Amino acid sequence: MQTILVAVDFQHDAAQVLARAAQLSAQHGAAVTVQHVVENMDVGEPELQGAVDQHSRTTLEALARAAGFAATPSLKVEFGVPHRCVNTAARELSADIILIGPGQPSTVMQRVFGSTADRVVRTASVPVLVVRNKSAQPYRSVAVAVDFSPLSEAALEAARTLVPDARIDLVHAYEVPLPFEQAMLRVGTRPEDAERFRQAKMNDCRRQLADFARKHASGADALVLRGAPGTALVELSRSGRVDLLALGTQGRNAAAQALLGSVARRLLSEAGCDLLVAGHIRE
Predict the structure, then answer these.
(1) Yes or no: is domain 138-282 CATH 1.20.120.790?
(2) Between the CA atoms of 201, 206, 279 and 33, what dihedral angle is there, to the nearest 10 degrees?
(3) b or e along 75-87 (b: 16 or more beta carbons within 10 Å of the residue's beta carbon)?
(4) Please, which of 81, 103, 181, 191 could form a disulfide with 115 given CB 3.0 to 4.6 Å?
(5) How confident is the prediction along the chain (283 residues), in pLDDT tens digits per residue?
(6) Where are the domains positioned within the chain?
(7) What is d(CA 109, CA 113) in angstroms, rounded to the nearest whole number?
(8) Common-topology check for domains 1-134 and 138-282
(9) C-beta separation of 273 from 132 below 8 A
């Protein structure tokens, strides 16, 4: 890992995101660029824009000093749509990873289509580390959510690159789909037979996860959780067992994400640990 892009605002989480960036920069010897994007401003007012630019740079300098970087990071202030500016900067810098805080949706538009963090996660072409916790200690225990898709492999590779010395657990969550449960009830399936079916499906998931581990992560622990993936992963993230959860995110557009939801989006708002998200979604 050679280049880290850190996207910060001045309302949420900037100090903890920069502290994590300083830790990772020291661990990997990576160069860091800290970016702040000013939105909803008429750039046709040069005097005002200049004043805002200077204030933003002064604030970034103070935040970077407080974070304790071993090497002074580059600072970047831009005017525009935040997630687009972040993704453009990541491409221009050939960044290996983007760090960002979870933020809080502050407008009706953001509540429908997602916060800046949500949009960056859905559109970035590199892994995104969403820093939810204040601790800047090195990650020691990582859970990689596995759904047996290529994005699971991408999440595992991103975790190994970010924290090569951490313990890795492979986690798969499974529940019998509700329509199937209802169908078993309608045809009079006995409770013990229904439970045997559920257990058989769990055993099948364990075999698949063990095969995935042998192929991609020899030596990693494998854990199958019963329950809806979103709920099971939120509970795991809050259990204290892991300090980083890595997952892939599927390629949906913004409207589909808003209407249907996703495991990644739920974790953005509810997870109890930091999130590493791998997956590219075209705008």
Answers:
(1) no
(2) 140
(3) bbbbbeebbbbbb
(4) 103
(5) 999 999 998 877 899 999 999 999 999 999 999 999 998 766 567 777 888 889 999 999 999 999 999 899 999 999 999 999 999 999 999 999 999 998 765 443 343 335 788 889 888 889 999 999 988 899 999 999 998 888 889 999 999 999 999 999 999 988 766 676 677 767 888 888 877 877 888 899 999 999 999 999 988 899 999 888 889 999 999 999 999 999 987 544 443 343 324 788 889 889 999 999 997 533 3
(6) 1-134, 138-282
(7) 6
(8) yes
(9) yes
What CATH superfamily is the domain 1-134? HUPs (3.40.50.620)
